[in-house]
């Protein structure tokens, strides 16, 4: 084990200044990802700056009706907040279906956005992995790739993005707020998560010292009729094989508004824009849901072990849409 120093900060400016000034420093939030990364030598921080005392843990409604979730809000507190449960059940459900109760009590929303892939080769120091060691190759391409992605892949990396709540936030067009020594930046969530391309080690646009301060979800009435459907090998404490975050509004049995994003099948939280376009104006029937789902997956690229995900993702989308359609329009 390499030695790591630890300090605790109480205000945002000090946190940013401390990490920015030291190339070996990193933020420590709940530690549920960070400590693992240090243990398995996937990251090499020499100094941890604990941000658990920062006053960025509130969940509040903004004057324009948007919901602002502080980066240090715990997954469980967000999942159980009445505001979230009423206005965005998809967020609450995505959180409750992730990790375990103990982890959710500790893990923060900011840390969740920056969790690392569960690809076993990434977590195995003996394996070749372009994400951990750029240019070293990708053992998953020819290895055990049952859990890997079929959308957004490249010849350099096929790892899935593991977050559940990031999928829900992607369906809702959330914005990630970031602070650094130069000021404030706001990233639409779809721009925040990067495709692997030739640089799978670069997963987001943040630079060293950038601090996520909040995640903002726009005021979307359709969010009230939303859900998160997660399909996995076992019913709890497991990552998704395929998941769908969905919000739906019908008018006279026709799709008037729809938001759809996928997890477990793509290299980033995947906004299913093709399916959304195919659904608008169509009758809310199993046939049109299946057609749209097939359209979304038409560019999917499977490996020998994960071909089943193409079908599974379609079934997951259809079931999510059917479930919401059966509830009627409650927005
Ligand atoms: C066994 C297990 C099962 C899990 N299952 C699921 C699951 O099913 N679904 C799911 O979505 N997740 C799951 N997770 C992942 C879990 O949700 C994340 O580990 C957690 O959300 C990370 O938050 P944290 O506060 O602990 O972050 P940390 O571990 O403290 O930090 C993670 C990374 O983010 C950086 N960081 C933290 N906060 C900030 C900030 N505000 N600004 C800038 N950088 C920051 C840190 O430097 C670090 O690099 C699981 C984790 C484990 C260990
Ligand atoms: S899929 Fe990505 S994370 Fe996994 S071994 Fe290949 S390069 Fe590494």
Describe this structure in words.
InterPro entries: CO_DH_flav_C, CO_DH_flav_C_dom_sf, Diverse_Substr_Oxidored, FAD-bd_PCMH, FAD-bd_PCMH-like_sf, FAD-bd_PCMH_sub1, FAD-bd_PCMH_sub2, Mopterin_DH_FAD-bd. Residues 1-222 form the FAD-binding PCMH-type domain. Keywords: Oxidoreductase. This is Carbon-monoxide dehydrogenase medium subunit. By secondary structure, the chain is of the alpha+beta class. It contains twelve helices and twelve strands. The strands form three sheets. A five-stranded antiparallel beta sheet has the order 4-5-8-6-7. It has a four-stranded antiparallel beta sheet with strand order 9-10-11-12. A three-stranded parallel beta sheet has the order 1-3-2, with helices on one face. The N and C termini lie far apart (53 Å). The model has no long low-confidence stretch (mean pLDDT 97). Residues 117, 119, 121-122, 129-131, 138-140, 157-159, 200 line the site of iron/sulfur cluster (SF4).
Q: Give the mean pLDDT.
A: 97
> Which strand order does the major sheet show?
4-5-8-6-7
The named CATH superfamily of the domain at 227-327: CO dehydrogenase flavoprotein, C-terminal domain
Q: How many beta-strand elements?
A: 12
Q: Which CATH class of the domain at 227-327 applies here?
A: Alpha Beta
Classification by helices and strands: alpha+beta
Low-confidence regions = none
What is Rg? 20 Å
Protein name: Carbon-monoxide dehydrogenase medium subunit
Domain FAD-binding PCMH-type: 1-222
GO molecular function: FAD binding; oxidoreductase activity
Keywords: Oxidoreductase
